[in-house]
Amino acid sequence: MCKKSSHFGEEIYVTRKGAVSARCGELGIIPGSMGAKSFIVRGLGNEESFCSCSHGAGRVMSRTKAKKLFSVDDQIRATAHVECRKDADVIDEIPMAYKDIDAVMAAQSDLVEIMYALRQVVCVKG
User: To which H or E segment does residue 107 belong?
Assistant: First the structure.
């Protein structure tokens, strides 16, 4: 979605890919990967980021590589504490295919304030 916005004294259109709005005081959610924490955050309105922050951890490997590298047994072990699908069709979502969400949150501490950290209990993947 493209949204008209004011930045650096100009009216511009901002399109966010892999990011969400983090205007000053704006509440948002940053989901972790399957099995990782998620966060409720408050935007800090950092103009240099166009008042944006990440919408999650981001991948460290492609879906194809994850499917080749990991097994269903790996998926079962990695998500033992989460109610979720544990079959070959979701191996590409294994937690090890994603960046560490705590490191991601630390890297964007100038963009958002963490209000709450949520422990994942259920993960739904279509």
Answer: helix 101-107
pTM: 0.85
* Residues that constitute the known binding site for GMP: 31-34, 38, 55-58, 125
Q: Which residues pair with 54 in a beta bridge?
A: 19
Four-CA torsion 103, 105, 106, 110, nearest 10 degrees: 150
Residues taking part in catalysis: 55
Residue 4 pLDDT greater than 80, yes or no: no
Using CA atoms, how far apart are residues 40 and 7, in angstroms rounded to an integer?
Answer: 25
> Where does the pLDDT of residue 101 fall: very low under 50, low under 70, confident under 90, or very high at 90 and above?
very high
Q: Which residues are annotated as a binding site?
A: 31-34, 38, 55-58, 125
**Within 8-98, where are the H helices?**
63-69, 72-78
Sign of the Cα torsion 31, 106, 52, 28 reads positive
Confidence check: pLDDT of 18 > 90 = no
